[in-house]
Amino acid sequence: MVRLPDHLNPAVQAPKLSKRFTSKLRSARLTSQLGIATGVAFGICLLTGYISHAIQHPPWWFAWPSRPISLYRVTQGLHVATGLIAVPLLAAKLWSVYPKLFRWPPLQNFKQNPLNALERGSLILLVAGAIFQLTTGILNIARWYAPMGFFFTTVHFWTAWITIGALLIHIATKLPIVRRALTAPIRPVKTTGLTRRGLLTGVGAAAGAVTVATIGQTVRPLAAISVLAPRDPRIGPQGFPVNTPATSAGVTESATSADYRLTLTGPAGSHTYTVDQLRAMPQHESELPITCVEGWSATAHWTGVRLRDLVAIVGGDDDSQVTVTSLQLGSLYSTSTVAPPHASNPLTLLALGVNGEQLALDHGFPCRLIAPNRPGVMQTKWVTKVEVSRP
Prior knowledge:
Number of domains: 2
Structural class: alpha+beta
Radius of gyration: 26 Å
Strand content: 5-15%
Largest sheet: 5 strands, mixed
Number of helices: 11
Order of helices and strands: HHHHHHHHEEHEEHEEHEEEE
């Protein structure tokens, strides 16, 4: 057997490394407190993230209501906010157990305690998965996809299940230690520096600062002080942001062409409309938010034709499902399915205008879908076809 030199031998280096971290602040109680806070943040992220995924890719049993109109704004705002809050929480949690991560051998007393392998294996998945989820999540809300090299939505979704599974195993194996640590008498720690209470206060302050510095992209009154928010909901054409402009979508020519037509099909036949013909229809108003999966949202005043009126023209009813298709080609979101609760809602419009102006090209001219309580990626822009089908 080839013997590694000491500077490359983990059996030699790991114990030395773990002994370099001697802070008296580390304790089972501190780790338990930080672990609970981090676990709650990750739990909220899982729940709200799954809601967003299920709205876009609904399983057979899932149904999402059209009211309250801002429910998705709340759930997705919580998803992004708790994800950002989890960054300082996870950093502090890893600091509190850092020396133990270098324990050698990794599977101590494996024969006497086989659960040790399960606990250590889940720990590797948990740490790696948590760091991956938070890092890619931050890259996503910043819309910086170049470093990833994969489709964020799919990988983020499945890695979340792996991470939460590892978290549940970790909780199960550590629960007795956590119970003892939190119920045991508190022992004062003699230190000339930071105290445990001061450390927890600092971590809480960091989480609060992250929240205030970013939540303005969801809570508009705080936009002016949310200096780290990737999106300012007040800035963009007609007063709110744009994720995909018309030039990037490749629709500038087709959307502004005199040959543009909206095709409406259903059980009773098919119709085509010019922009002027759509404007000649009864116009309705809705005040609804645009809420993006990246966490930002902005409320706007929309005008246009009610989708339910278009559904009725081609023989549909309140139980009909609608598929909306965009002029944009080659996009995963060029079509959107509008379920009956949303299609029949009187607030759902094929919008022609916003905030008292004709719809800007980057916001979906000549017309776009706007419906209550749906992700922004499903509020299809540059609509060219509306297909109505009965259940």
